Amino acid sequence: MYLRRIMRSTFVVLVLLLKMLRCIASDAPWIPYNGHCFLLYRNEISWSDAQLACRKDGGDLVSIRNVEDQSFVISHYRNFWIGLSAPDQGTGYVWSDGSPVNFLHWADGQPNNKNNVESCVEFIPSNWHKTGSWNDKQCEAYNRFICQIPTATWWQGPEGG
Ligand SMILES: [Ca+2]
User: Fold this and answer.
1) Hey, what's the signal peptide range on this chain (predicted)?
2) Which of 29, 32, 62, 153 could form a Cys-Cys staple with 146, CB 3.0–4.6 A?
């Protein structure tokens, strides 16, 4: 029993290590930036399916926490889901990974909650001084999406963070 528990813990650690290594493996499309690995998925699915896909990868939908994150994701030049949503209109917007919401980059006139059905947020690669902007959209709409996985501190090195 004890041995089995050790083997299971070792397996979990190995899987986690592999997930982190995937970010820095040269043949993997994950991009390390600012303490996270990022991956753009080109298939178009609903917001909650995108969240599920990212969590299956051990990460979450991308959080845009500051202007550096915003200028990083602009390079992907297509609309995509980000991790921001308002699951409860009373509470307002929250990031899927629990990051505090203290940076916002809405497009002009957004969020407008059109027809009272828009509570998920997409990134639009235009407007707002060419750094892209955000729009609230119906969660069931289809979009590409970006996942992020936090990288381990040992990988960040002296220049990370
Ligand atoms: Ca809108």
Assistant:
1) 1-25
2) 62
29-150: CATH topology = Mannose-Binding Protein A; Chain A (3.10.100)
Q: Separation of 110 CA from ligand 1 center, angstroms?
A: 6
Provide the pLDDT for residue 72. 81
Alpha-helical regions (H) of 44-104: 47-56, 67-73
pLDDT at residue 110 greater than cutoff 90 = yes
Distance 121 CA to ligand 1 centre (A): 8
The span from the CA of 33 to the CA of 23, in Å, is 10
* Three-state helix/strand/coil letters over 80-138: EEEEEEEEECCCEEEECCCCCCCCCCECCCCCCCHHHCEEEEEEECCCCCCCCEEEEEE
Q: Kindly give the distance from the C-alpha atom of residue 71 to the centroid of ligand 1, in angstroms, as a whole number.
A: 21
If you measure from the C-alpha of residue 66 to the centroid of ligand 1, how many angstroms do you get, rounded to a whole number?
21
What is the CA(61)–ligand 1 centre distance, in A? 19
Give the CA radius of gyration of the chain. 17
Residue boundaries of the structural domains of the chain: 29-150
Ligand 1 geometric centre to CA of 26 (Å): 38
